[in-house]
Write a structure and sequence with these properties.
It contains two helices and 27 strands. The protein is mainly β. The chain folds into four domains: about 40 residues; about 110 residues, Sandwich (Immunoglobulin-like), CATH 2.60.40; about 110 residues, Immunoglobulins (Immunoglobulin-like); about 70 residues, Immunoglobulin-like (Sandwich), CATH 2.60.40. The strands form seven sheets. Strands 2, 5, 6, 7 and 8 form a five-stranded antiparallel beta sheet that branches. It is globular, with a radius of gyration of 26 Å.
């Protein structure tokens, strides 16, 4: 009996170890694929800065993605005053600036400059949005904006607002209220000064020429009869004192699609790093989109209700998009390139 007992004990022990080993293999397998999923959300972001005129030993990029460390992410001297680094950064919204010699000095960015955002603490930083693709950022001068040198504007801003969720009554108009810059802009918070046009189906829109600047704004109804209300930290907003508003950085032509009182999910559209032009806009035959400094990977066309009406993948600097089979109205083209994405407004006669 003792021998039988020992044999049975050993059998049960081996059986348990075998099952445990299978479980551990399954756990290891799952952890492996979980790590792949996590890593797949990390993008390569290339930072560069022109340090001409600065006296220093080592340049760094410091931001919310590295705990504002003054030494974790050194840049490499590329010659001619240009320093750069490529970092793996997870999808998300970050603030950052360039510094040198472990915070011996950092950029003194200007409030309202097109490349900056002012946080609740009154700090002026650069904005980084990582979303779905690798990014090669423009090369700014230390303390300045690259956008102003490459494409100074003015630029066209198209705002489309879905008011279907508004529970009140719209008497006269839906308005955009926001900052002015150099006596032009978004009405200087005046109330009824900048009305949007009713496009039907609860969509209201407007296109405005704006100088380069980071504008704060919100959507209102009948002047200041009603207005959007946001909480500090909501996506696409900035808080200064008691006020939390939307913001837009006008570094190029942009189209933003908003939903009344809903925070905007920021994307790399807001920091598109490439030039684009549209030939024949408006048209009743075809649009031609050109991107001279990067190759187009895909184009999607949406109507004002958000329905996709056209989609194509390619690898060229130019594309012709047929318009003859589309109804008259406003369309939004989302262009994906090697340098990120942007949205532009198309008009069909």
């Amino acid at each position: 009996m003792d021998g039988f007992f020992n044999f049975k004990f050993i059998y049960l022990l081996l059986h348990l170890l075998f099952k445990t080993n299978l479980i551990m293999k399954k756990i290891t397998f799952l952890l492996f694929f979980l790590s792949l999923a996590i890593n797949s959300q990390t993008r390569n972001v290339t930072f560069s800065v022109d340090m001409t005129g600065e006296t220093f030993t080592q340049a760094y990029v410091s931001g919310s993605f590295n705990g504002w460390s003054g030494t974790d992410n050194p840049l490499t001297d590329q010659g001619s005053g240009i320093w750069s680094v490529t970092l793996p950064i997870a999808d998300g919204v970050y603030e950052y600036k360039f510094s040198y010699d472990n915070w011996a000095a950092s950029e003194a960015l200007v409030t309202g400059a097109v490349c900056t955002i002012t946080s609740g603490g009154g700090n002026n930083n650069r904005l980084l949005i990582v979303s779905g693709s690798n990014i090669v950022l423009l090369t700014p001068p230390f303390g300045g904006c690259a956008e102003s040198a490459t494409n100074p504007g003015p630029h066209n801003l198209t705002v489309n607002v879905d008011m279907s969720g508004y529970g009140g009554t719209i008497g006269t108009a839906v308005n955009i209220n926001g900052e002015n810059y150099n006596s032009q802009g978004l009405g200087n918070w005046c109330g009824p000064c900048v009305p949007l046009a009713d496009q039907g189906s609860n969509i209201w829109s407007i296109t405005l020429p704006l100088e380069e600047f980071t504008y704060q704004f919100k959507i209102t109804v009948d002047g200041w009869t009603d207005q959007e209300s946001f909480t500090a930290g909501d996506a696409g907003t900035v808080t200064n004192g008691a006020n939390t508003n939307r913001f837009i950085q006008m570094s190029g032509d942009k189209t933003i699609n908003l939903v009344w009182n809903q925070p905007q999910t920021l994307s790399s559209d807001e920091i598109s790093q490439f030039e684009s032009t549209v030939v024949n806009n408006p048209t009743d035959t075809q649009w031609t989109i050109k991107t001279p400094n990067t190759r187009i990977k895909s184009v999607q066309i949406f109507n004002v209700l958000g329905k996709r009406v056209y989609s194509v993948s390619l690898d060229k600097n130019e594309i012709m998009i047929p318009a003859y089979n589309l109804s008259s109205g406003i369309y939004i083209a989302k262009i994906q390139t090697e340098l990120g994405t942007k949205s532009i407004k198309l008009l069909r006669n």
